[in-house]
Amino acid sequence: MVRIRLKRVGAKNKPFYRIVVADSRSRRDGKCLDEIGTYNPLQKGENVTLDLQKVDLWLSRGAQPTETVASFIRRLRRTAAAGTQAAAQA
């Protein structure tokens, strides 16, 4: 099974994560199929970047996001929808 999950690349006491597509049997920081975003928990405000086109591609291929990544996807889709509505009203 293919999962969309976090891969830790930060130093000790300075966490930084890449959002990757990987086989569920591979190690947390092991080989991945694709890198689709980043997450910096130490940064305030906008701390997640995600390529939603790649997310849609991998979801259509059957990849399953973890709970954390699914919450990131929901949050970014809400902000993207709000941004397009505000642009349409202006």
Task: Give your account of this protein's structure.
It is a single chain. With 90 residues, the chain is an alpha+beta fold. It has a single domain, classed as Ribosomal protein S16 (S16 Ribosomal Protein, Chain: A), CATH 3.30.1320.10. The chain is built from two helices and five strands, in the order ββββαβα. The chain has a five-stranded mixed sheet with strand order 4-3-2-1-5. β3 and β4 (48-50) form a beta hairpin. The longest helix is centred in the last third of the chain and has 23 residues, at 67-89. It is flat. The chain starts with a strand and ends with a helix. The model has no long low-confidence stretch (mean pLDDT 91).
Under CATH, the topology can be stated as: S16 Ribosomal Protein, Chain: A
Note the total helix count. Answer: 2
Whole-number count of domains: 1
Q: Judging from the principal axes of the Cα atoms, what is the shape?
A: flat
- Average pLDDT number: 91
For the biggest β-sheet, the strand order reads 4-3-2-1-5
**CATH architecture identity:** 2-Layer Sandwich
What is the CA-atom radius of gyration, in angstroms? Answer: 14 Å
The CATH homology group name: Ribosomal protein S16
Question: What's the layout of helices and strands?
Answer:
Elements: E1 2-8, E2 17-23, E3 34-39, E4 48-50, H1 52-60, E5 64-65, H2 67-89
Parallel strand pairs: 1-5
Antiparallel strand pairs: 1-2, 2-3, 3-4
